């Protein structure tokens, strides 16, 4: 794995001298590393591509902290996200199998995944490879709901999820974690981090992990091999930075992960499996050019490589490789308490696939401007972005929002914005499915929200109305597959998202509820695999060395198909977690997911995990 990281990094970038010759701008990556130095208050980075106090963020959002990730006891990012407001997931079997994430009724192609500020997506499918993203490498997760295309370009229709890998600061620190559980699950991770203080401060963090499980049979329908379908995942991440002078910093970050997951492929005795690689590399230079002018240049490369093996023969291999190179230069100008932002980006995609006649490339050039207003009780934002693609033409998106602090704790806000989703390579170029006539989906969203947080109690209620036109759907065609992608439908994603929490002594009570109607307006059918309601309730306890929690995650029925004929029943899952601090360095922890052994499906004919337990120990967790 280490050799793979070095090999990829050696070819990922042009000479570093090119990077050093350009003064740069700040970005989600740079602020993720420095936010803790700037403010002790909770902050959000993703909503505006700059550090904001949580109370000043207009967009509806959720932040999952490192402490929450540890206390959850989860080992899968998908399982962590499944319990969050506004989030629905699907998975074709166990923890290592193909997974998707939906935000506010939008599909997985309408959600952008960022890893330390770098977009990670399969260009052929249009989805992030969620099953290969290792939770063991993640320090923090931010979920921002609503149209974000004016900030991030294509595909940010339902929102953006950004994961930040672990970073280093302070005295040298070693961390270690190991655990085992049901279905033969085993997870081991280790890392070292810290900083060398002085005139030229150096920060460093390096983490690695190995996961595996025997799993269970993915498919439950007739004609499928009933063998266990396990997975093996290995991963490594790192962040390094060097402060050349006060306000001038160079850095690099990477994440390398390989997931080898078995799946059912009929009654074949061959052990069908899928190998997915997700790699992200970035170099940056952050500079404070004047007292009021900051800039950040980020140069990045990401890979999403997929290999499916259905037999030992050469013909049994299906291959799809995506590579994306991006250069992003953002300048932020402080105008009193306001910020004006200017962003220039170029992203190049290249795909090689056994399902396409030719290897293809495409590029997008983008320019964006944004203004963040903060005047006493008044907060506001306005942004506009122009994206010009060599494959699907130009698109202009914009957003405007306003919020008012009724008190220090209570805020009301509203916004309108537009977005678009680009056609995937499959939807354009796949010989038996795509069409060069396909164009981007377009979204128009309006929302209003009320937010309260006094440090002990919090409450959120947000109403949204997101209209999607030129929806890309599958229709009967004369090509070999029998179905093709066409812009023929319209959709409406409408709903109310509610969340609340309250601290009573050593206890914290919380609950969420999403009421939604994600509907194909052309057919008047519910969009597949999305429920009309879902949520969670629970209570957490923390006192002295003990922390624990119990929660119930629930969802209404969904349909697995666009015609609404194959119904997936609703479900409620009881989950428990507990941790015990042996001392300041060592902690025992355990989780019990689906404690009542509920049988349910999130994808038709695919099994989900029954009652399962995981226990472990970690060192250096504080």
Automatic annotation (TrEMBL):
SUPFAM superfamilies: Porins. It is a multi-pass membrane protein. Residues 1-32 form the signal peptide. It is found in: Cell outer membrane. Residues 215-234 are annotated as: Disordered. Residues 56-160 form the TonB-dependent receptor plug domain. PROSITE patterns: TONB_DEPENDENT_REC_3 (PS52016). This is Vitamin B12 transporter btuB (Cobalamin receptor) (Outer membrane cobalamin translocator) BtuB-like. Belongs to the TonB-dependent receptor family. GO terms for cellular component: cell outer membrane. It comes from Herminiimonas arsenicoxydans. InterPro entries: Beta-barrel_TonB, Beta-barrel_TonB_sf, Plug_dom, Plug_dom_sf, TonB-dep_rcpt-like. It comes from the Bacteria. Keywords: Cell outer membrane, Ion transport, Membrane, Receptor, Signal, TonB box, Transmembrane, Transmembrane beta strand, Transport. Residues 212-594 form the TonB-dependent receptor-like beta-barrel domain. One of its GO terms (biological process) is cobalamin transport.
